[in-house]
Amino acid sequence: MTEGRETDAEAEFAAEIADDSVSLVYLPQPSDTLAGLRVRQRIKRWGLLLRCVFLVLWVGQWLLGTVNRGSIDAVSTVVFFFVIAVVGGYPRLQAAHVQKLAGWQGEYRTTVTSAGITTSGTHSTLIQKWSVFRGYRETRGHFVLLSRDPGILCVEVLPKHGLSSADGLDRLRALLDRHTTRV
Q1: β-bridge partners, 135
Q2: Distance CA 26, CA 5 (A)
Q3: Per-residue pLDDT tens digits for 61-79
Q4: Partner of 100 at 20 to 30 A CA spacing, among 8, 70, 74, 147?
């Protein structure tokens, strides 16, 4: 090939990638992060199980203390309700924390292609190949891709509100189905 000239195969490949890509542009929202964390939690299940066991133990401790004393202690009741609020609201607290980390990046521009997913923010660019992901789950407003590692430490959330065209949703779903599995 001569420099600066494309062969027919290269031009065809470039056209195929352009036709086989979906772009999303969005500002990350706490609801996007929360959707990803909830999907991760449903897949892992250990975190949910541990939170439930922890809550049952706290309820039991509070009830036993109340029965043994014969009356409700104000301090233990306040601590009891505080623990219930923290354990019950933990996913929202975690989503708010992640939002602080992701929000300063500004607008996200994500391109999903046959090669993988490229996400660019104001200060960084992340390129992920399909081999990083074990699969995805579609929610009402998002596509959530889960990493292959045993702890599912990485979650990629593709919000549907970031799609610029109506046919983008079907094309994105087709790309995800082609390169990874639904979980």
Answers
A1: 146
A2: 35
A3: 888 888 888 888 888 888 8
A4: 147
Nearest to residue 32, comparing CAs of 158, 172, 168, 183? 158
pTM of the model: 0.73
Quick: pLDDT tens for 85-136.
887 788 888 888 888 877 788 899 999 999 999 999 988 899 999 999 999 9
Decide if 162 contacts 29 (C-beta within 8 A).
Answer: no
Structural tokens at position 139 = 């929610």
38-49 residues labelled b (16+ CB within 10 A) or e (exposed): bbbbeeeeeeee
Q: Hey, what are 45's tokens?
A: 């299940």
The pLDDT tens digits for 119-132 are 999 888 999 999 99
CA distance between the termini of the chain: 44
